[in-house]
Automatic annotation (TrEMBL), chain A:
Protein name, per record: Sorting nexin
Sorted UniProt keywords: Protein transport, Transport
PANTHER family: SORTING NEXIN FAMILY MEMBER, SORTING NEXIN-5
Main function: Involved in several stages of intracellular trafficking.
Highest taxon, organism lineage: Eukaryota
GO cellular component, one term: cytosol
Gene3D superfamilies with a match to the protein in the record: Arfaptin homology (AH) domain/BAR domain (1.20.1270.60), Phox-like domain (3.30.1520.10)
InterPro entries: AH/BAR_dom_sf, PX_dom, PX_dom_sf, SNX5/SNX6/SNX32, Vps5_C
Length: 416, 509
């Protein structure tokens, strides 16, 4: 039950290969090698190893179906994977095309490489996010048994998901409005259970904070990418300068140009690591918290239903009319509410655990990567040697020079 | 200037893909060859810097040392400020680096083996024994409203005998600097001296300061200007002919200076200047010079290329500064957001880790800010200066063309007059003949003078260009070292901060 994404990785080895066509839809092949951990689920699958092509819309269909299933009202439905966002690389491609005339061939090639890397990164992220969605479903004791989920995995023909017709689209829109009304409702309702009261306050607050953090982290990553691009231009220009130069500066410029090239690689890696470890983490949990909030809404609505049914029962008793129906209705509402509360409690607790573990893992990895990247620029001793090399200072002199003091000072300076 | 063609060392440093902790720059001794004829001590595997080298030194190793050591010691006040907590105004940390750009020889006897450098001491370049340091400091707002201006304190420290004392300071305003430049330009540009251009006017910037906005951008503007003025003065006095100029001496020494009114942007003099510039541009296009000297042609091409490349580099550098400033702002915003997130997190260990993350990011944002300043003041401004300097260089070449044109014109006139004289002789008109003879004599004088002027300006330009190139190499070298140091420092700090954060992240249970 406390399966994290990591564990589910081990449970079911699943690799996803992606085949992108040039329009917005995404085809995903899911080769599936199930291993023996949970025999009960295994039996409902017909083949041990299979792969099917699925489009993004199919995932959305699966998600929506699960959300609409009454039985799962007490569960946190894993958030649907978002559509791949090629907006920013597309923009970049436009700019690159426009600026082609002003760049050297080298520069242009490098910019194109960067662009391709960005496309690839969006790609990989999309695949990962879709994969994570399926893995969470498969590791959930209830959801993994869902019939629709099994069809999704097995049905080897095109799912031809019935696209939502106009009425349903409108219905969906209406549902969103109801949801925002829900938010008002949920904050107004008198909570009987302390646990849920706390959770509600916490989740509502946390959601707005994490949404903000996600946006800010995205901006940070974007800035890093911009800097990496600048380094490309600088490195290229320094190269041209050094090619034309016949003075003592020639070598210095070459080395500097190489340094900037290295810097841009480092900057690019920092940007992408930050994106994956920080921004993605925040983004994912933002959506997950939304799913948790949805659970709370459903429970709140059930509570309202229950309270309404109580009132109806009282009225019926007063009027001495339709009492058994009212009683039955009230019982149903109570049952539903209790069921939701019980499973909701379990879900929310495990959610918290999951979240803490994921944050821990990603924060550690991010810090380690940042350190690794920062070390790519030469450290003290190496820089002294480097500077000595390009400006012809003998190492003996260097040792006695104040350069040594300087570098020593760097290592001794406090972390403040 | 020894324009020695260099073959790149056969073993190029191998910049292959980095792994963990891999050496970005593998042992230099393995990669560079000794090239005794050129920049001496590239062979560092042995103690080649010393007396073993033949006397084909140029002044490079000595200056190199001076700069390296001087910069290093002067760096410490800068770095102390950098390492202090809290956002300091962008201005204060920056003042030291610019004042470091001057070579200060004679203060580091402990470093060198005297024997090797006795040879170099009697270099003919004045800049080697150049002992003059000018600093521009203490910008003060004088007056109010639209008549307000910034007064800068110009302090000169020198032991050159031209000056009355060893240390003195005066108060100057921006238009004084412009006035000085216009005087020097009118005196020296047309005979071939590369007069350093003055910093540019900025009506928007100054208006903000006048109006009294005490905010970040006007502070930055004042600092940028102060730094530019200092560099301008240092460049000007490095030119021996300008150093001796009475206008320069007066500028540096006398407490009162007549107001330079003709430098106002919207004055009649300003408009006249603009019209003249346009006329000159048209003229330049029509002069076609027979370049007999390949050196000049080559140099002109070289400067054209340099101009294009430096402009491009400058633009990229400015973009880098902008983006780094953005990064700093975004990081600060993220830090705040992460702090709030940490506050609302109910798991204690995670909450603490998130708060720590916020603190780390805040420190990093300051780091980015400082690096952006280094990018700017070290690199970007230098490039801007050189873009303007190269415009001055091109101007000097243009003057040479004009001088040549003048000479050719008077030669052609002489020719015509001689033909006229011959015709008059045939037609026997004695009185007109005498007049013609007189004119011819005058013109012959003019032609001779024209030729002399042309020779003179060509000679001056050759000297100036070689001096300029030397300065350029030195300047860039200095800046590149400083810039590398700043980059390294940033990375070191980054490592420290993340290292401190890592245990916090691991402590999340």
């Amino acid at each position: 039950m406390t399966s994290t994404i990591d564990e589910s990785n081990k449970e079911k080895m699943r690799s996803v290969s992606v085949d992108l066509n040039h329009d917005a839809s995404l085809l995903i092949d899911i080769p599936d090698a199930l291993c023996e951990r949970d025999k009960t689920t295994l039996s409902s699958f017909q083949k041990p190893d299979f792969s099917v092509p699925r489009q993004h819309e199919d995932f959305i269909w699966l998600h929506d179906t699960l959300v609409e299933t009454e039985d799962y009202a007490g569960l946190i439905i894993p958030p649907a994977p978002p559509k791949p966002d090629f907006e920013s690389p597309r923009e970049k491609m436009h700019k690159l095309g426009e600026g082609e005339a002003t760049m050297t061939k080298e520069e242009y090639t490098k910019m194109k490489q960067e662009l391709e890397a960005e496309y690839l990164a969006v790609f990989k992220k999309t695949v990962q996010v879709h994969e994570v969605f399926l893995q969470r479903l498969s590791s959930h004791p209830n959801l993994s048994k869902d019939r629709n989920f099994q069809i999704f995995l097995e049905y080897d023909q095109d799912l031809t998901v019935r696209r939502k017709n106009a009425k349903e689209m409108f219905g969906g829109f209406f549902k969103n409005m109801v949801k925002s009304a829900d938010e008002v409702l949920i904050s107004g309702i008198k909570e009987v259970d302390d646990f849920f009261e706390q959770e509600k306050t916490f989740l509502l607050d946390y959601y707005s904070k994490i949404k903000d953090s996600t946006a800010k982290a995205e901006k940070m990553t974007r800035s890093h990418k911009n800097i990496a691009d600048d380094y490309i231009h600088i490195s290229a220009t320094l190269n041209s300068l050094s090619a034309d130069d016949s003075t003592a500066n020639k070598k210095h410029l070459e080395k500097l140009s190489d340094l900037f090239e290295k810097l841009r690689k480092v900057e690019g890696r920092v940007a992408s690591d930050q994106e994956l470890k920080l921004t993605e983490l925040l983004r994912y949990y933002m959506r997950d918290i939304q799913a948790a909030k949805d659970l709370l809404y459903r429970r709140a609505r059930a509570l309202v239903d229950y309270e309404n049914s109580n009132k109806a029962l009282d009225k019926a008793r007063l009027k001495s009319k339709d009492i058994p129906q009212a009683e039955e209705h009230q019982q149903q509402c109570l049952q539903k509410f209790d069921k939701l509360s019980e499973s909701g409690k379990k879900e929310l607790t495990s959610f918290k655990g999951r979240r803490v573990v994921a944050f821990r893992k990603n924060l550690i990895e991010m810090a380690e990567l940042e350190i690794k990247h920062a070390k790519c620029i030469p450290a003290n001793r190496k820089l002294s040697r480097f500077m000595a090399a390009i400006w012809g200072m003998g190492p003996a002199r260097l040792a006695s020079s104040k350069c040594h003091d300087f570098t020593a000072q760097i290592t001794d300076s406090p972390a403040e | 200037m020894a324009d020695i063609a260099r073959d790149p060392p056969p073993q190029h440093t191998d910049f292959h893909e980095l792994e963990d902790g891999e050496d970005l720059f593998p042992d230099p001794a393995a990669t560079l060859e000794s090239e005794p004829a050129s920049l001496p001590a590239e062979d560092i595997s042995t103690n080649s810097n010393g007396p073993k080298q033949d006397s084909l030194f140029d002044d490079d190793p000595e200056d190199l040392f001076a700069e390296a050591t001087e910069e290093v010691s002067l760096d410490s006040p800068e770095r102390d400020v950098l390492l202090s907590d809290g956002p300091s105004p962008a201005i204060t940390p920056i003042t030291p680096p610019t004042s470091v750009l001057t070579p200060r020889i004679g203060l580091h006897d402990d470093m060198f083996t005297h024997s090797s450098f006795d040879e170099i001491e009697d270099e003919e370049e004045a800049s080697d024994s150049f002992d003059m340091h000018i600093s521009v400091s203490d910008p003060e707002k004088v007056g109010d409203g639209m008549n307000a201006y910034m007064a800068y304190k110009v302090t000169t420290k020198t032991s050159i005998s031209l000056f009355k004392s060893h240390e003195f300071s005066v108060k100057r305003r921006f238009s004084d600097f412009l006035g000085l430049h216009s005087k020097l330009a009118s005196k020296y540009l047309h005979i071939g001296y590369i007069v350093p251009p003055a910093p540019e006017k900025s009506i928007v910037g100054m208006t903000k300061v006048k109006v009294g906005k005490e905010d970040q951008s006007s502070n930055e503007f004042v600092e940028k200007r102060r730094s530019a003025l200092e560099r301008y003065l240092m460049r000007t006095v490095k030119l021996p002919v300008l150093l001796k100029d009475p206008d320069v001496l007066q500028f540096l020494e006398s407490s009162e200076l007549p107001r330079a009114v003709s430098t106002q942007a919207l004055s009649s003099a300003g408009l006249l200047r603009m019209v003249n510039k346009a006329a000159e541009a048209v003229n330049k296009m029509t002069i076609k010079m027979n370049e007999s000297d390949a050196w000049f042609e080559e140099k002109q091409q070289h400067f054209e290329n340099l101009d294009v490349q430096l402009r491009k580099l400058h633009a990229s550098m400015e973009s880098l500064v902008l983006h780094r400033k953005e990064l700093s702002v975004n990081t600060a915003q993220f830090a705040k957001s992460a702090a709030m997130l940490g506050n609302s997190e109910d798991h204690t260990a995670l909450s603490r880790a998130l708060s720590q993350l916020a603190e780390v990011e805040e420190k990093i944002d300051q780091l980015h800010q400082d690096q952006a300043n280094a990018d700017f003041y070290l690199f970007s401004e230098l490039l801007g200066d050189y873009v303007r300097l190269i415009t001055a260089v091109k101007g000097v070449f243009d003057h040479r063309m004009k001088t040549w044109q003048k000479w050719q014109d008077s030669q052609m006139l002489l020719q015509k007059k001689r033909e006229a004289e011959a015709k008059l002789q045939l037609n026997n008109k004695p009185d007109k003949l005498q007049q013609a003879k007189d004119e011819i004599k005058e013109l012959e004088g003019k032609v001779e003078q024209g030729e002399r002027e042309f020779e003179q300006i060509s000679k001056t330009i050759r000297k100036e260009v070689s001096r300029f190139e030397k300065e350029r190499v030195k300047d860039f070298k200095t800046i590149i070292i400083k810039y590398l140091e700043s980059l390294v420092q940033t990375q070191q700090q980054l490592i420290k901060y993340w290292d401190a954060f890592l245990p916090e992240a691991k402590a999340i249970s």
